[in-house]
Amino acid sequence: MNDRYRVFFVNALSGFKAAHLVGSRSDDGRDNLAIFTSVVHIGANPPLLGLVSRPNTVPRHTLENIAATGEYTINHVSSDMIAAAHQTSARYPAETSEFEATGLTPRCGERLSAPYVAESRLTIGLEHRQTIDIEPNGTHLVIGEIVEVELDSDTINEDGWIDLAALDSVSAAGLDAYYSPQRLARFSYAKPDRPLRTLD
Ligand SMILES: Cc1cc2nc3c(=O)[nH]c(=O)nc-3n(C[C@H](O)[C@H](O)[C@H](O)COP(=O)(O)O)c2cc1C
């Protein structure tokens, strides 16, 4: 495979992944924003999220800022934001804020200095806990603990379930295609001796 073909082909194999914007701030106060689709749930207690960063063989501003400040934000992308979100993947110089470059709006949170995305309908603030270097390809698994979350209160059920389709949180496949969410069903907790029920 040539390199470009391989990138498209292999990136699609892991399927649909939620699109997120990662906000961070450098030591000297410059805002940074970049799209990531490798965000993964690590555990609920303590509440941990991971993300995979490409190798730091060229400057990786998100990775550098997280290492320097220990703080970052993860912001869901809705369908009206996809062009701006995609544009954050361009390799801007460190002096350029992707907020200014793309027209997205930075918002200050209560606890962290890292910027949130004002247009985002679900935002998560994290403190860095660990980075694991992935030996076979030089990528990095960055693990953070969730310290604050903001979302529309009418999108959370009494049981804590969040309606991501109501929030219009989009997914991406490969590195350039975006998809709207559509719920097919929600099921009761599966047990060997009980039939499933569908939930509202
Ligand atoms: C749809 C999409 C998903 C991406 N997901 C990731 C990812 O999970 N990890 C990563 O390191 N880069 C990912 N990228 C590339 C980054 O957005 C890109 O390298 C960006 O310039 C990083 O910015 P930074 O240097 O300011 O951190 C993705 C790009 C696109 C278009």
Descriptive overview:
With 200 residues, the protein is an alpha+beta fold. The chain has a single domain, classed as Electron Transport, Fmn-binding Protein, Chain A (Pnp Oxidase, Chain A, Roll). It is built from four helices and twelve strands. It has helices at residues 3-13, 61-69, 82-87, 98-102, and strands at 17-18, 20-25, 31-36, 40-44, 47-53, 71-76, 106-107, 116-117, 122-134, 139-151, 171-173, 177-179. A seven-stranded antiparallel sheet has the order 3-2-6-9-10-5-4. A three-stranded antiparallel sheet has the order 1-11-12, with no helix packed on it. Strands 7-8 form a two-stranded antiparallel ribbon. β7 (106-107) and β8 (116-117) form a beta hairpin. The protein starts with a helix and ends in a 21-residue tail after the last strand. Flavin mononucleotide (FMN) binds at residues 32, 34-38, 52-54, 60-62, 86, 89, 91, 172, 175.
* Uncertain parts: none
Name the strands of the widest sheet in spatial order: 3-2-6-9-10-5-4
CATH topology: Pnp Oxidase, Chain A
Inertia-based shape? globular
Number of separate helices = 4
Q: Using the coordinates above, name the CATH class.
A: Mainly Beta
Question: N-to-C SSE series?
Answer: HEEEEEHEHHEEEEEE
The CATH architecture assignment turns out to be Roll
CATH superfamily: Electron Transport, Fmn-binding Protein, Chain A
> Which radius of gyration do the C-alpha atoms yield?
18 Å
Tell how many strands the DSSP assignment holds.
12
Report strand %.
25-35%
Small molecules held by this entry: flavin mononucleotide
State the secondary-structure class. alpha+beta
